[in-house]
Structures are given as structure tokens and as C-alpha cells.
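Figure 2 data, in text form.
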Amino acid sequence: HGERLADLGLVQPRLTEVSVKAAVLPFARFPGADPVLGPEMRSTGEVMASAVDLPTALAKAERAAGRPLPTSGTAFLSVRDEDKPAAVPVAAALAGLGFTLVATEGTGRTLRAAGLEVEDVAKVADAGVGGETVVDLVRRGHCDLIVNTPQGSGARADGYLIREAALVARVPCVTTISGAAAAVHAIANARAESALSLQERIASGV
């Protein structure tokens, strides 16, 4: 019957690095596609990055996948009501990293109530004649990171227009709060790291 695993004296290996695998999705090849993940998505490839910690590995993986995370600039936030409480620590962390915060009215109200300094920008549907909307902000290159949790579907939804503009302008767009939190940690831990050859990796035991 063989030996029991418990009797073999196996030792749990001590991991010295973390690896992150990121899918490469072909949104840019399909104009008008909404870059929100769904069960029908098919990636055109994958990349993997390794580092001594998860945030750094994530930052490297996103960079390798063609989605480099910014380390400064302006961050725009617009999240659905149920995500607003969890968006506060994400926004606070971004502010702490020196980002300027911009938000739509509802999200901005929540962030200001938490003591954060936020600039308002109009939704597309709420913009007056000649008023600047978040889509204008993205198209003019005045936005470096977007946190937008979907509130609707289809071309008429504000979120769709925001994500479409981000895709065209190649601005990183995060569509979940958990993803936003991970991205913030990655930005905070971003640092230059030299690549290791296969021989160096084997020699180092990682």
C-alpha cells in the first residue's frame, strides 16, 4: 500500500519568491469591446513575473503584459454604491503615494466624508454644455489610473464609455476593488529589479 505522507518526513519547502501569471487579453483588437472580464473571455497569451514579494511581482507582470502601473499622477475613481466603503482605503493609499484624486459626484462625496481631498468631474450623462467629463479627462491625457467598478452594461452606460476611453488612451483601468487594492500595493512597492537568467535562478535555489 506504500507509505503515508505523514511518515515520510517531508519538509514544507521555504519559498523565497512569489510568481504572478497575467493574461494578455485582446481588447485593443476589438474596437467597442468593453474591457470587463467575463466567463467568455479568451486570452491571446500569458506572461509570468517573479519577485521577492507579491506586489512587486504583480507590478512586473502588468508591465510585461503591456499594462504598466503608474507611480504618480492623477487617479480617477467611480465605483458603485456597495463598493464605496472599500474604495476609501484604496483612495487614501493613492493620496498617500502622491496621486491627485478625481472622482464622480457620489464617489467623491464618500471620499471627502473620509477626509480626503478630491476634485469632482462630471459623468457623461451629467455634463452641461461645454463641461468637461471624465471621458474628456482621459482623452486629453490628464488621467493616469482609473478605478471603475461596473454599474451597468452596454454602450449607454457611463462606465462603458470610461473604460472604452481608457482602452484607447492606454490608461490602466481596474474594475474591481480587490484588484485596485492589489494595484495600489504594487505601485507602493514598485522598484527596479534586475532579471535573473535561468542559470542564476537554478544556482540561487529559487
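Caption note: The domain at 18-189 is CATH 3.40.50.1380 (Rossmann fold).
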